[in-house]
Write a structure and sequence with these properties.
Number of helices: 8
Shape: elongated
Helix content: 10-25%
CATH topology of the largest domain: OB fold (Dihydrolipoamide Acetyltransferase, E2P)
CATH class of the largest domain: Mainly Beta
Strand content: 35-45%
Structural class: mainly beta
C-alpha cells in the first residue's frame, strides 16, 4: 500500500526512446480504498470466462461483453453464478474502438472487480482500470494477491492522508473493505439509496451468447498491433478538432488550453502532423460521430463520477480501421478515423488551474495521434524520458503545452516530413510585441539542416513569464513591461549551430506586426495578416500610403482586407511588393510578397 497520488496512468509497455506504441492512458487521481468501496454498487471475485467484442450500431462503437463466473460477492445484490459486463471499447477484425484506461480483462484471468451500472442497469468496471484487480498467487507464500495492472507514481503536492492499494494480500484487502462497509454503514446505505431507482442487471438486456460470431474469444482493450496514426498529414491534410467547453472550469472555457495543446503537436519541425481548431461542439465522448472532439463534463456519462476529488480525470480514445495501414521503420500502423478526449465532471478542484489543465490536455492529445508514454518507470534514470510531456506522471511544473525532445522525436518518427538536408538556416527575424498579462505564443523558424533541430537560450533573459521550448516556441504570459534582449542558438542533429540575438518588447501599447500578405487577383483584394492590428490601420504599399480605399478588419482572423485593382493599390504588375501598416502612430515591420 502507499499514500495518495495522481498521475498519468497507462496499461502499456514503456514507450522508451521515442518509438510509438499503442497508447492507452488516462489521467487519474487514485481513489482511496474506502472511497472506492463506498462508491460502487457491487464488489465481486471471480474468473473471466469469455470476452466478445462486437460492433454495436446503436452505440456507433465496438463494445466488449465480458462473462465472469462469480466465486464471492463482497458487496451488492448479486447472486453467485455468472454475470456479463458491458465495456465500451475493443476490436473486431475490421474496426477498433480504443478507450484509454480501460481494464485489461482476459479469458482465464482471476479478478477482483469493483462494479457500477450504466443507466439501463448493465454492469461495468468502476472508474475504468481503477476498479480492476488481477488475482495472482504469491509464489513465496502461496497466498493470493490482488494487483492493479499499472503503477501510479506519487506527486508530493497531494496531501490527503489516505490509503490507496495497488498490491496486497487479498484476504487482508477484503477484510479492510469489509471493515469499511461495516464501520461506515450509513454512507454505504446512503449510496445504495441514491441508486435504488436504477436496476442492477446480471446481463445486459441486448446480450446474446455468441455475439462474436463463431463464439471465439476476442481480446479486448488492446490497440491494433503494433500502432496507429492519422494518414491525413501524409498528403498535407489537417486533422480538425472541435471543443465542447461548456463545463470547463477555466475563464476561456477550455479554449485557450485546448488550442495550446493542439498547436504544440502541430508545429514540430520535421513532423508532418498538423491539427486545427475547428470550432465549438455540443457533443463529445467515446462514441464515434465523425467529429474529433475535446469535451468537458463527460457528456455521455461514460466515466464514473469523482469521489472526494479523486478518480478518473480524463481519458483519450480513438477509432481505427485496419483498412488503411502503412509500415514505418519496419512497424505496421493502422489508420485512425476519429479521436476524442473526454474530461470528467466534478474536477474543478484540479482543472481550474489553467496551467495544469493545459499540460493534461497536451498529454492526452499526444495519445490521440498515436504516441505512447516516454517511460512508465517511476524512478526513470533517463532525464530525457522523465522530462517528456508524454512521461506517465504529470510534471505540474508550469510547462503548459511545452513539448520536449523525446516528444518531438516521437512525432517525427510517426509523421516524417520531407526535410531538406541543405545547410542549417535560421529564418526568423524580428519578434512581435507582447502585452503584459496576455498569453503570448510565437514560433521561431529554422530551415534545412538535419532534424531534430533544437533551440536554446544562450545569453540574456526572456521577459518574466515566457519560456523558449526546444522546438522553438516562445510562449507563456509575460508579467512585466520592458525591452528584453536575449541570444538563442539553433542546433541540428549534424552538430551545425547558428546563434542570433532577438529583442522582445512587452508593452500595453504594442506595435503592429505583419506575418504575411497576398493579393488575390480573382477577387481583386489585398489581404494582410498580423497581430496588434485594428480597424484604424493605415496600409502602406511600396512606400505609398493607400488613400481613398476602405480597409476592412477581421478581428477573429487578425486580417486586413483592402479591395482594388493592382494599379489602385500601388501594386506592381509583376515582381515583388512590400507592405507596412501604421496603427496608433506606430509602424509595423515590412514584409515582401
Amino acid at each position: 500500500m502507499r499514500g495518495p497520488s495522481w498521475a498519468f496512468r497507462a496499461a502499456i509497455a514503456a514507450f522508451a526512446i521515442s518509438v510509438p506504441l499503442a497508447a492507452q492512458a488516462m489521467t487519474a487521481i487514485p481513489i482511496a480504498d474506502d472511497d472506492l468501496a463506498l462508491s460502487v454498487r457491487a464488489i465481486v471475485e471471480g474468473r473471466v470466462e469469455l470476452t466478445e467484442s462486437v460492433w454495436r450500431q446503436e452505440r456507433r462503437a465496438v463494445v466488449t461483453y465480458v462473462t465472469v463466473s462469480i466465486e464471492r460477492v463482497a458487496k451488492g445484490s448479486i447472486d453467485a453464478g455468472t454475470i456479463v459486463l458491458r465495456q465500451i471499447g475493443g476490436r473486431t477484425d475490421a474496426v477498433s474502438t480504443e478507450i484509454s484506461g480501460s481494464p485489461r480483462l482476459e479469458r482465464g484471468q482471476r479478478v477482483l472487480l469493483f462494479l457500477n451500472t450504466d443507466d439501463d442497469g448493465s454492469l461495468h468496471v468502476a472508474h475504468l482500470s481503477l476498479g480492476h484487480y488481477r488475482v495472482e498467487t504469491d509464489t513465496a507464500t502461496g497466498r493470493d494477491l490482488v494487483v492493479r495492472d499499472s503503477e501510479i507514481a506519487s506527486i508530493p503536492a497531494v496531501s490527503r492522508n489516505l490509503t490507496v492499494t495497488d498490491v496486497a494480500y487479498m484476504d487482508e484487502f477484503l477484510s479492510t473493505i469489509a471493515s469499511t462497509l461495516t464501520s461506515r454503514r450509513a454512507e454505504a446505505e446512503g449510496y445504495a439509496a441514491r441508486n435504488a431507482g436504477a436496476p442492477l442487471r446480471a446481463v445486459p438486456p441486448e446480450y446474446e451468447v455468441g455475439l462474436a460470431r463463431g463464439g471465439a474469444s476476442s481480446p479486448a482493450f488492446t490497440f491494433l498491433p503494433p500502432g496507429f496514426r492519422w494518414f491525413e498529414p501524409d498528403s498535407g491534410g489537417l486533422v480538425p478538432v472541435r471543443l465542447n467547453g461548456r463545463d470547463a472550469p477555466t475563464p476561456s472555457k477550455g479554449l485557450d488550453e485546448a488550442r495550446s495543446a493542439i498547436a504544440a503537436w502541430s508545429t514540430i519541425s520535421g513532423s508532418s502532423f498538423a491539427a486545427s481548431y475547428a470550432g465549438v461542439s455540443s457533443g463529445g465522448g467515446h462514441r464515434p460521430n465523425g467529429i474529433n472532439e475535446i469535451a468537458f463534463g463527460d457528456p455521455l456519462r461514460e466515466i464514473d463520477d469523482p469521489v472526494n476529488c479523486s478518480g478518473v480525470v480524463a481519458t483519450s480514445g480513438v477509432t481505427a480501421t485496419s483498412a488503411v495501414a502503412t509500415v514505418i521503420n519496419g512497424q505496421r500502423f493502422v489508420g485512425i478515423t476519429e479521436s476524442d478526449v473526454v474530461i470528467n465532471n466534478g474536477f474543478d478542484c484540479l482543472l481550474s488551474d489553467s496551467v495544469l489543465l493545459t499540460e493534461i490536455l497536451t498529454h492526452e492529445f499526444g495519445h490521440t495521434i498515436g504516441i505512447g508514454h516516454s517511460s512508465e518507470r517511476a524512478a526513470e534514470p533517463s532525464a530525457r524520458l522523465a522530462d517528456a510531456t508524454m512521461y506517465f506522471i504529470a510534471h505540474n511544473d508550469g510547462r503548459r503545452a511545452s513539448l520536449r525532445v523525446d516528444d518531438s522525436e516521437a512525432a517525427r518518427l510517426l509523421y516524417p516530413a520531407e526535410v531538406s538536408s541543405g545547410p542549417l538556416a535560421l529564418v526568423s527575424g524580428s519578434l512581435p510585441d507582447a502585452v503584459p498579462g496576455v498569453i503570448y505564443a510565437v514560433d521561431l523558424r529554422g530551415a534545412d539542416g538535419l532534424t531534430p533541430r533544437v533551440w536554446t537560450v544562450v545569453s540574456g533573459m526572456l521577459p518574466g513569464g515566457l519560456q523558449l521550448t526546444q522546438d522553438g516556441r516562445i510562449g507563456g504570459t509575460p508579467v512585466e513591461s520592458g525591452s528584453f534582449t536575449f541570444g538563442v542558438r539553433l542546433a541540428d542533429a549534424r552538430g551545425d549551430e547558428i546563434e542570433r540575438s532577438f529583442t522582445l518588447r512587452v508593452s500595453d501599447d504594442p506595435a503592429p506586426f505583419l506575418l504575411r500578405a497576398k493579393y488575390k487577383t480573382a477577387g481583386q483584394k489585398l489581404q494582410i495578416t498580423g497581430v496588434h492590428l485594428d480597424a484604424t490601420s493605415v496600409v502602406i504599399v511600396n512606400g505609398t500610403i493607400l488613400e481613398g480605399v476602405a480597409v476592412k478588419f477581421s478581428a477573429g482572423k487578425g486580417r486586413l482586407t483592402v479591395k482594388g485593382s493592382r494599379g489602385a493599390l500601388n501594386l506592381s504588375e509583376s515582381g515583388s511588393d512590400t507592405v507596412e501598416v501604421v496603427v496608433r502612430n506606430q509602424r509595423s515591420n515590412a514584409i515582401s510578397f
